[in-house]
Amino acid sequence: MPVTLRRAPDLTVRGIGKSYSGVSVLRDVDLDIPSGEVHSLVGENGAGKSTLLKILGGAVRADQGSIAVDGRPVTVHTPRDAIRAGVGLISQEGALVPARTVLENVFLGRWANSWGFARRGSDRAVFDELIELTGFDVDPRERVGRLSIGVQQQVEILRALARGTRVLAMDEPTAVLSEHEKDNLLALIRRLAAAGTTVLLVSHFLDEVLSVSTRVTVLRDGNLVLTDDAARLTPRTLVEHMVGRQIDVLYPQPVPVADDAPVRLSASALSRGPVQGVDLEVRAGEILGIAGLVGSGRSETLRLLFGADRLAAGEVRIDGQPLSSLSPRTAMAAGMALVPESRKEQGLVMSRSVRENVALASLSARRRGPFVEGGSERSAVREVSDAVDIRAAKPDAAIQTLSGGNQQKALFAKWLLRKPSVLLIDEPTRGVDVAAKSQIHRMIVDLAADGMAVVVVSSEIEELLELSHRAIVLRHGRVVGEFPRGTPRERVIAAAFGDEEPTATPGRAAGRTGPATAPGAPPDATVPPSAAAKENA
Ligand SMILES: Nc1ncnc2c1ncn2[C@@H]1O[C@H](COP(=O)(O)OP(=O)(O)OP(=O)(O)O)[C@@H](O)[C@H]1O
């Protein structure tokens, strides 16, 4: 059924097409987006969503088609063209200069145009105005390289607004955010749209898409298959259009841990930087979730367990044996693997092929003298890549040519190939589509059922609580609570904010991990429980 537009289209896209090496990734895409509309693009990994956004942002040049803003045709061949046309792209890759400060990044290049903020006063005054508008809490003097991914994204949004962006194209902006930050960003998107900014949003979170969007477009294999009012759609109908068939996306149940299962991984008093005396214990077959706000020390805890950052104090033990001089090398030799948060900075070599990347962490294990066993490597890589369903044009394709979600799957495959006994995973399904996500969930549950000890960090509280046997909550680098599977998410969120009694389970780790025994526990860790999660405040 045709959708009637209430206002003149602000952004018009006609017949956009794009091919790479003869492979068509976008075909004849049309969009008409009125000013002030939040319009979401959804689709499976590799459907062409990022490519469409990159074309609008001038990062990729379309082969066919045209773009008009406010009815005026615009040529967008470079990011500078896009900025001039009023289009700002917040991409998955990020585009900040890590060595520069927040303020320098926001005003980098002084792109401001006639409708921008940047000519109305000093940089600092404009920055303060933008902070007021967005409600972000960002120190303008901090170096960007020292900020979490979530805060870096806020800097990108500030920069786009400083440049006078009227069409804000955001590629999976909430993938890097905690629940509370997601809510804040969605509220900001609504405010910007109400003030007349057109927002084009790519997201794999279908509930979020339906709650924030006016209309939604579904792409499948580079084709536009549907544009419709969000109010007429459900997550289920969206998935059907995305995948082309009905699928169930229920969480698999973790298999109960055997009573006599040995403790595979344990750590005591882990400390460094934001992490302050974390104790934890994971048994063979157990999935332990780590929840907390961004900056609570979740990822840092995983990095300390793996030796990626040197411990200032504390001890890590595998099967009861302390790991002396902990480093990634000793951790890997002891059977640990870490699937990191950032595929670009910590996990994948972008110029290398999928096969090389997946094989990378296992090369030394498979080397015989100076030779790599080519045949067996190839078949092992193929097996694990098939298991996580990596969709690449060919195995020798450079990893940078894969869609974001397929890169994430390659990162996962790389570590699975090592067959670790302890798997540490930071944001296992970031950027992964709904269908692939349930495959990865299934895989994590199966790996644990086979005896692996798994530690998962996820900003998606539902994922964390459904997948894990129990979850610990970090706040300011300390364990402030432990919750069994099935705990209402509000209680876990309240603990992350400091609004919940410290420990909900009188279980094995309760006394150990609660603030009562944690060294130097903060005084506010024992505040009485509050019925209302802060999130709802
Ligand atoms: N530089 C490139 N060279 C070759 N192929 C590419 C390149 N960039 C993207 N592709 C291919 O284009 C297709 C669409 O990719 P795109 O990144 O737009 O997908 P997406 O829908 O954003 O996926 P995701 O949800 O995983 O981010 C994919 O098959 C991808 O492999």
From TrEMBL:
Signal peptide: none annotated. Residues 503-519 have a biased composition (Low complexity). Residues 11-246, 255-501 form the ABC transporter domain. Residues 497-537 are annotated as: Disordered. It comes from the Bacteria. GO terms for molecular function: ATP binding; ATP hydrolysis activity. It holds the Pfam family ABC_tran. The keyword Electron transport does not apply. InterPro entries: AAA+_ATPase, ABC_carbohydrate_import_ATPase, ABC_transporter-like_ATP-bd, ABC_transporter-like_CS, P-loop_NTPase. SUPFAM superfamilies: P-loop containing nucleoside triphosphate hydrolases (SSF52540). Keywords: ATP-binding, Cell membrane, Membrane, Nucleotide-binding, Repeat, Sugar transport, Translocase, Transport. Gene3D superfamilies: P-loop containing nucleotide triphosphate hydrolases. This is Ribose import ATP-binding protein RbsA 1. It comes from Nakamurella endophytica. The gene is rbsA1.
